[in-house]
Amino acid sequence: MRKKYKINATNLKKEAWSWLEAFLGIIPGKSGNFFRGFCYGLVLRNFRGKHTSIGRATRIGFPWNIIIAPNSHIGNNTQISCIQYGDLVIGSNVMISPYVMVTATVHSFEDTDVPMQLQGLHSEKVVIEDDVWIGGKSIILPGVTIGRGSIVAAGSIVTKDVSPFAIVGGNPAKVIKYRKQ
């Protein structure tokens, strides 16, 4: 049994966003990064990202639900999504490297009599506090808070909260050391 695609305001909004995102994604260079950040700021009511740059081919699902503070950078080919307003917050001066995945969205799976893809989605809040660096190809899973001043090593999978000023790495990510002793 396939789920039918409903034509409604929400789905039309998602479709229009996909077209705009694809167009913005082809603009090259550093100027393209800042132009994308500028355009996101014009289009999205929750985007407070003054001086925020967004890399090429970055996908931001349901961007009207995400809060991004000023002076942050989102690298090329990154995927970010959140289905409920305010459940994904990115602080100021955050550096997100290329090929990172950040999601607050989870498939529901409680009812074993119904296929998982038909059970819908729910959201678990993700907060990336100020002055955080997330290394390339990392994955930030739903329900996680990454503390201020932390570093997530490249290729890490963050499944639990990260303390402020911690350097974490691995799968699952564990504390390697702290920036402040």
Shape: globular
Q: How many strands appear in the DSSP assignment?
A: 18
- Percent helix: 10-25%
**SS-based structural class?**
alpha/beta
> What is the CA-based Rg, rounded?
17 Å
Mean pLDDT value? 86
> How many DSSP helices?
2
Structure description:
It is a single chain. The protein is α/β, with parallel strands linked by helices. It contains 2 helices and 18 strands. The protein has a 7-stranded mixed beta sheet with strand order 1-4-7-12-15-17-18. A 5-stranded parallel beta sheet has the order 2-5-8-13-16, with no helix packed on it. Strands 3-6-11-14 form a 4-stranded parallel beta sheet, with no helix packed on it. A hairpin with a 4-residue loop joins β17 (166-169) and β18 (174-178). The model has no long low-confidence stretch (mean pLDDT 86).
